[in-house]
Design a protein that fits this description.
This protein is 5% helix and 45% strand. It is mainly β and 73 residues long. It has a 5-stranded antiparallel sheet, with no helix packed on it.
């Protein structure tokens, strides 16, 4: 995926399900984008607020983003 494809979900209101190349699934809200100069991995990453903790996911590892409706589970 690219930052342009992720941008519509970056609004602090949309819960999303993110699927990665290894078929892992994460649910939360995208709260930030870090460019390759600011990350330990050297790749562009998103920050995902999963409620209890934050997770950084490399943008190049994301295969699908699905907008979710309704309250958090």
């Amino acid at each position: 995926m690219t930052i342009e494809e992720i941008a519509p979900y970056f609004d602090f209101n949309t819960r999303v399900k993110i699927v990665t190349k290894d078929h892992s699934e994460f649910i939360g809200m995208i709260t930030g984008v870090d460019d390759s100069f600011d990350t330990y991995s050297g790749n562009d990453e998103i920050e995902l607020d999963m409620g209890t903790y934050y997770l950084s996911i490399e943008i190049s590892d994301i295969t699908e983003i699905i907008a979710l409706k309704g309250p958090p589970e």
